[in-house]
Design a protein that fits this description.
The chain is an alpha/beta fold. The protein contains 21 helices and 34 strands. The protein is 26% helix and 24% strand. The strands form 9 sheets. An 8-stranded mixed beta sheet has the order 27-28-29-30-31-32-34-33, with helices on both faces. A 7-stranded parallel beta sheet has the order 4-3-2-1-5-7-9.
């Protein structure tokens, strides 16, 4: 469509268009990289415009003027999210931050709770039917435009034309300003590093093939996407598309084939990045851009089975409260899409959420796993909404767990030098037992190589990993599920109690070198339960004493043999030359396991019905 032929009366230059704005107006500006730069600059340069209230979600261009005192006298900036460009101004109190869930912002406009007089937007040129596209900024821009008294659009041929609910007819625009300029680019300022690599590694363990993912705002979420490049048939339902997705598209990792809501389509409402991603989404039917009240609606999100939400945080306290928008009293970012997606993923069949953050800040001077949130810090996500928390030191699973378990889970993934202080603070708050031992202060990344899985003859898969202090309640439940005979074979007497004190003594302070315990876990109704444990503990003469216990439902399935081989490998790495074991004479099944692995083992009678078994690693049957 030729605008000069169709609606010449609407065509103005930028200065003429912004002159239509009256003093005291409430002006909405399109989001982030979709913002109309030429219109913004013309508005700021028009000295006649006074007492203008500006609403925007992510602001970039205005950061060039925010330090100017004359700007602050003429404009009041109200932001729903504080971008890195605006952070310093926010700290100085030059910005009014509006905390709000992204899914609800469009309703604030529609209900006139936030009234809008003018909307400044940017669109692609119209097609032959007169439809322009909001391009990379549909999010809250559509609602801002629909609920403003007057709409001024910058028509930019460099704006991508996106599919979905992005189209607006020229008849619905009051004034059009044709101006070609590059779209704002937004790339991360922090390069990938070892911390991001380790966090990405842990996240990749939780994301299964065929899952639908959401990635939040920020540098860390941007960095960790690359660690999903070995997955298959991922889907995407997310607020924001960035350049970080491009390698996953190019490697055909993201196919959207397994999505249950809009299969085959990437659902998003915003795109921010480089010209490369803008050209990729341009007229690409794979992308389905919708406004935030759809994309971020938890009930819509939940229609995606296996929806995994991945977002970041500034602080997480030991009870699971999450702060995302402020550093103490200083507003830093925004609530954004986190709560919407946490609640949507919780309602999704097979879905869950992940909060990812580095364990420290300020060059390791402060912990981001804290005993309590900083004074002034806001709780963006409640302790009831959090599922997984990941740092470079591991994975904490909080859902359905009490404060005691949460403390232990989160202390385990804090930076080692802060773990003891966190446990001391938790004792002071009466969160945990007063005799609780702190987690190991070692960096336990090396334990990852001791994780494995074993498929039984019936097709069920057992996952094995080293035991952690936070497994206390899980192991307690395992013990009390065992029959008396199984307990007798393991402990040589009819042990009736497995108290906190006993667990503290045996497993709370495993050092993973001299001593090691490996647990086997099975999936049961959305969570994992312990069904086996194999342990060794240091003895004299270069040996370690080994012992096993397996749930009755899983006995005689090769699990002890598998655990024995695992423990042997680990013991060799730690300088041991062999195992010893004390076994009841009537426990013929356990004796057969040892003889199968070590045909040349030796035995001795230890008194009563106890048999001592001695095994050398050099005498294995392999």
């Amino acid at each position: 469509m030729n605008l000069n032929d169709y609606c010449p009366e609407k065509l103005l230059n930028a200065q003429e268009a912004v002159s239509k704005i009256k003093r005291g107006s409430r002006v909405f500006i399109g989001t982030g990289c979709g913002e109309p730069q030429q219109l913004i600059m013309a508005m700021v340069n028009d000295e006649s415009l006074q007492d203008i209230m500006i609403y925007q979600m992510l602001s970039s261009t205005l950061s060039n003027f925010i330090k100017d005192e004359s700007f602050s006298r003429r404009f009041l900036l109200k932001l729903f999210f504080i971008s890195s460009h605006m952070r310093e101004a926010a700290f100085e109190g030059k910005i009014d931050y509006i905390p709000s869930y992204l899914s609800q912002i469009p309703r604030l406009f529609a209900s006139q709770r936030i009234g809008l007089d003018v909307a400044l937007i940017q669109v692609s040129p119209p097609d032959k039917f007169g439809y322009c596209s909001l391009g990379v900024s549909v999010d809250i821009t559509r609602s801002g435009m629909e609920n403003a008294g007057m709409v001024i659009a910058q028509v930019n041929p460099m704006m991508p034309r996106t599919w979905g609910d992005s189209f607006v007819h020229v008849d619905d625009i009051d004034y059009l300003v044709e101006y070609k300029e590059p779209i704002v680019e937004a790339l991360p300022t922090i390069k990938d590093n070892e911390i991001a690599s380790r966090i990405g590694f842990y996240i990749s363990q939780l994301v299964d093939d065929g899952a639908t993912i959401q990635i939040g705002f920020g540098n860390l979420p941007f960095s960790i996407l690359k660690y999903l490049d070995k997955k298959k048939d991922l889907g995407v339902h997310t607020q924001l598309i960035t350049d970080a997705f491009l390698p996953l598209f190019e490697k055909n990792v993201i196919t959207n084939k397994k999505k249950t809501l809009l299969p085959g389509r990437v659902v998003a409402s915003l795109c921010m990045g480089s010209e490369k991603i803008y050209r990729f989404v341009d007229n690409n039917p794979m992308f389905y851009f919708r406004s935030s009240e759809f994309v971020n609606d938890p009930t819509v999100i939940a229609r995606n089975d296996n929806l995994i939400s991945i977002s970041s945080a500034l602080e997480v306290d030991l009870t699971g409260q999450v702060c995302t928008d402020s550093m103490g009293y200083l507003f830093y970012s925004g609530i954004g899409d986190q709560v919407d997606f946490l609640r949507g993923s919780a309602m999704s069949k097979g879905g869950f959420s992940i909060i990812a953050l580095p364990s420290t800040a300020q060059n390791e001077k402060v912990s981001r796993i804290v005993s309590h949130l900083s004074e002034g810090a806001g709780v963006a996500t409640t302790r009831g909404d959090v599922n997984f928390v990941i740092t470079e030191y591991g994975i904490a699973e909080l859902q359905g767990k009490g404060i005691y378990q949460r403390v232990m889970e989160l202390a385990q993934i804090a930076h080692p030098k802060f773990r003891r202080k966190l446990i001391e603070a938790a004792k002071k708050h009466h969160y945990i037992f007063s005799d609780q031992l702190p987690p190991s202060e070692d960096d336990l990344i090396f334990l990852e190589k001791y994780k494995s899985s074993f498929t039984l003859r019936n097709g069920k898969t057992i996952e094995f990993r080293p035991i952690l202090p936070s497994d206390e309640f899980g192991f307690r439940n395992f013990f009390y599920s065992l029959q008396e005979k199984t307990i007798y074979f393991r402990f040589f007497y009819k042990m009736k109690l497995f108290s906190h004190e006993i667990l503290q003594k045996q497993w709370a302070s495993v050092d993973y070198h001299k001593n090691m315990s490996i647990i086997g876990l099975v999936q049961k109704r959305g969570h994992k339960e312990i069904m086996a444990i194999g342990s060794y503990a240091m003895e004299e003469d270069g040996r370690a004493e080994v012992a096993f216990v397996v749930s009755e439902d899983y006995q005689s399935m090769g699990i002890c043999s598998y655990l024995l081989e695992m423990l042997e490998k680990i013991a060799k790495e730690n300088g041991y030359s062999g195992f010893s074991a004390t076994v009841l004479r009537e426990n013929s099944a356990m004796i057969r396991v040892f003889k199968k692995r070590y045909p040349n083992l030796t035995t001795s009678m230890l008194g009563g019905s106890n048999v001592g078994i001695y095994m050398n690693f050099e005498d294995t049957s392999e």
